[in-house]
Amino acid sequence: MTSELDIFVGNTTLIDEDVYRLWLDGYSVSDAVALRVRSGILEQTGATAAVLQSDTMDHYRTFHMLERLLHAPPKLLHQLIFQIPPSRQALLIERYYAFDEAFVREVLGKKLSKGTKKDLDDISPKTGITLKSCRRQGLCSHRFLCQQPL
């Protein structure tokens, strides 16, 4: 039995904006794959479910590795590990530090500190935003409100 395998080797880090949004929104890989399947991507691309699963996992691994750099944007801009064009770096940073309207409405007027995970746990079901996304936005809002350097 012979199998066919396509391999792509390159030095530019590919970023799928739709998968990045799903990752920022806190979806698991399996939930992200399900949402992508419902969006009709298999029909649009002719890919199989296995390829879609692998692609999504690969993107999530990349985003996980990039996250520590996103915590300090100047590090992302000056690092040499990921070859990401400056315009794409700006997009990654902008979207990482963006807030959902529902989240902002819930936290306005509340004093958030690093130790208020309980508040974020309560915000998640009220807004329908995943807990992971609430925690990311809570961390970003704390940095912004405390004027900690990015």
From TrEMBL:
GO BP annotations, alphabetical order: platelet aggregation
Any one Gene Ontology molecular-function term assigned to this protein's record: fibroblast growth factor binding
InterPro entries: FIBP
One Pfam family here: FIBP
GO terms under cellular component: nucleus
UniProt cross-references to PANTHER family, sorted A to Z: ACIDIC FIBROBLAST GROWTH FACTOR INTRACELLULAR BINDING PROTEIN, ACIDIC FIBROBLAST GROWTH FACTOR INTRACELLULAR-BINDING PROTEIN
Protein name: FGF1 intracellular binding protein
Protein species of origin: Microcebus murinus (Gray mouse lemur)
